[in-house]
Structure formats: C-alpha cells, structure tokens
Amino acid sequence: MIEVKTAEEIELMRESALIVSKTLGMLASEVKPGVSTLELDKMAESFIRDHGAEPGFLGLYDFPNTLCMSPNDQVVHGFPTKDPLKEGDIISIDCGAKKNGFYGDHAYTFKVGEVSEEIEQLLEVTKKSLYLGIQEFKLGNRVGDVGFAIQNYCESFGYGVVRELVGHGLGRKMHEDPEMPNYGKRGRGKKFVEGMVVAIEPMINMGTHRIKHHRDGWTITTRDNMPSAHFEHDVALVDGKPELLSTFAYIYEALGIESDEEDAFRKNLLVL
Hints:
The protein has 5 helices and 15 strands. It is globular. The protein has helices at 7-28, 37-50, 117-135, 143-155, 249-255, and strands spanning 54-55, 67-71, 74-76, 90-99, 102-111, 160-161, 167-169, 176-180, 197-200, 203-205, 211-213, 220-222, 228-230, 233-238, 241-244. 28% of the residues lie in helices and 24% in strands. The longest helix is centred in the N-terminal third of the chain and has 22 residues, at 7-28.
C-alpha cells in the first residue's frame, strides 16, 4: 500500500535527502586514484552523524557499512574495501541517511580521474534517463510510464537495463510501495497519487542487462563484466508534478560543473 506523505512530512524528507546530497558532495572531491572505498565510507559515517542524522544503510538488512560502493562492473550493493581506486575507474556511491524518522536515499556514479569516451557516454545516458523518468512521475501517470521512458532511452544506445533491481517508495521505511522498475509499458502499473515519495534509480549496463549475484549475498556484477552506471534521486509528487528532494548540486559545486538539469523539478531553486 502506498504511504502518502503530508506537506510537513515531505519537508522532513527533504531534510534527510539533502543530508545525503551533502554527504555525496563532500565525497566528490575525495574520489580519486589511491583512495580506498573504506576510507570514503568512514568519512561518510562521520559526516552524516555530525549533521544530526543516522547512516541509513548501516545495519539495514544487516548491511555492515554506511555506503554501498560499487566500482566498474559492480551494479549496486558493493562493500567498501581497502583496495585503492584506480585511474579510469568509475564508482557508484549509494548513500542513505535517517533523520526525524524519515529516510533519504541517493546515488551518483563518479569518475576516478579520466575515463574512456565509451564510459563517459554510459554515465551521461544513464543520468539523462533518470531525468526522463522523473519527468513522467506526475499525476495521472503510472509506474510503467517512468520505466518505459528510462528503458526506451537507454536501449536506444544499446545498453542493458537491469530487471531484477528497481527503485522504490521511500519514507519511514527505506523501501516502501511502489516498486519502480527501470523498464515497463506505458499506462501499466500503480497509478501515481499526490503526496507520494519515490526513489527513482536507473541501473544501466554497457552490455547485457543480465547480472550475477555473488555468494556474499550483496555484491552484484554484470554478467559480461562490462561497466554499469547508477544514479538516484528522491522525488515527491507535489501539486501534481515531480519535485526533487535530493540534489547533485553539492557534487557539481565540488567538481566545478555547471548544470541546470534540476531546475525544471524545483518550485524554488536550491541555494547552496
């Protein structure tokens, strides 16, 4: 059953989402060759706690860390390790925080130094598909409309859209109804209603859409060992339209990137 949020609850969720956004912004300048993902994990835990929140993933379903760190051919749910990042890697950092009883959940795939043109395109297409999906999260539409938009765009580049892993509703629980697949048919699935909050998160593979589950119960890689990209936003349905609760603006500020990609999904432009 979909848990509809009040305007006051959505503002509390915005606070949680922005803590996650700021955490990823802090990490953005730390993602570089030679740094281990375990080091980044420790930084994130301290940052979240210093901002009056709890790490949302730590202990959730017995996950042992603050961040899911998934490099290269890992899709999601990777463990932080002592292994140093290398030039040319990509790393999906998925982060959660809980404050005032509500979760924020947000992900970005970072480049480690310079990457190939092929990987650059994978990242650009995956992120673009996220906003195409968000655009369809509006009153009168259904879950399948979001999934179709993401799938149609990514598959036009020959990429694989992961089937077994999906976005989700968000609130007092990390995972609520409805599930938000990144594939689907227009007009199918649950109907969107005012006050919904969802995490939309395309997980797109350069090659096959097929994935492999590892014996540790968490790590998931692409079946053909090709790279995978992952971007995620928290979005509320307000006045019939999608409104972003999370932002990549802190990442862009750290990396010196100018972007207006989020402007269409905010009533009030974010002031850093």
